[in-house]
Amino acid sequence: MVDLKVKLGKLELQNPIVTASGTFGYGVEYAQFVDLDTIGAITLKSITLKGKVGNPPPRIAETPSGMMNSIGLENLGLEHLIQSCLPKLDNLKKVKVIANIAGHTIEENIECARELNKQKRVDALELNISCPNVSSGGLAFCLDLNSVDVLVRGVRKVYDGSLIVKLSAAVPDVVKLAGVSMEAGADILSLINTIPGVEVDVEQRKLFFSRGSAGLSGPAIRPIALKAVYEVAKAYQVPIIGMGGIGSLDDVLKFMIVGASAVSIGMMNFVRPTIATELVVELREYLSMKKLKLSDLKLQ
Ligand SMILES: Cc1cc2nc3c(=O)[nH]c(=O)nc-3n(C[C@H](O)[C@H](O)[C@H](O)COP(=O)(O)O)c2cc1C
Known about the structure:
The strands form 4 sheets. An 8-stranded parallel barrel has the order 3-4-7-8-9-10-15-16, surrounded by 5 helices. Strands 5-6-14-11 form a 4-stranded antiparallel sheet, with no helix packed on it. Helix content is about 30%, strand content about 20%. It has 8 helices and 16 strands. The longest helix is centred in the last third of the chain and has 16 residues, at about 275-290. The protein has helices at about 80-85, 105-115, 145-160, 175-185, 220-235, 250-255, 270, 275-290, and strands spanning about 5-10, 10-15, 15-20, 40-45, 60-65, 65-70, 95-100, 125-130, 160-165, 190, 195-200, 200, 205, 215, 240-245, 260-265. By secondary structure, the chain is α/β, with parallel strands linked by helices. The protein is globular. The chain has a single domain (about 5-55, about 75-200, about 215-295), classed as Aldolase class I (TIM Barrel, Alpha-Beta Barrel), CATH 3.20.20. It binds flavin mononucleotide (FMN). Flavin mononucleotide binds near residues 71, 100 and 166.
């Protein structure tokens, strides 16, 4: 039997297949389709301190080889996550649970992290730095390295478990962003988030999404994601969760070969809700057939 266990710093996963934030609800929504306990880890939808109603519709659009979304971080807030969502995952014994926070100020993120630090069902915390920092004019955290530094240091101080910083590739220098995140206390990096884009409603001669810009995900962004993972892995010795357009075993292997220790499945959960569990089986069969170990998956 091939050993699929991976260690991302202190975080041990039974296998390297993870589900990406915002594409797998709070886990329980998928329990009717798959045995959640066969997945390496599930990442919960981003939460904010008080919750958010999100953006008005339309919220999604199909694109060639992908989709765009402008959900606007709709969520019911930290308290709801703790009281209502986490207890529903209590019966799971093998899958790790990664909570994801997307506060709009440094203080909001710190407050969420402090509370999540007390939650036994949370095995790791992912910090989504692609959202706007309202105290500095609404510029996304990831576009201001100084804000990233202060934010990650602040969260690090109150969170004792594995801290994952989720990087965007829509920045001037993703390697620099990775370095600042690590220096400030990230144990693990996850990348990439969606890539901003614009869709147009030709009939109405209007922008399709109410906020103009929306996030592109799916196979269309895979080469961008692979480049980001490749460059960060080449620059630093850091556990990486790679994501962006993964839809097949071949894609999983590509991310691992360029340096990811684990991979996250996003948009493709909507196409095939069973994909994460299937990829675990396919990865095991592939390694067994090729007589390879996970550690053999690296650039030659
Ligand atoms: C509908 C949708 C909602 C998402 N919501 C979140 C979110 O709340 N927090 C987050 O960190 N990433 C969110 N993402 C980004 C994904 O987690 C992932 O980083 C990105 O989609 C790239 O992976 P993919 O191409 O496999 O989907 C969302 C993506 C989609 C498609």
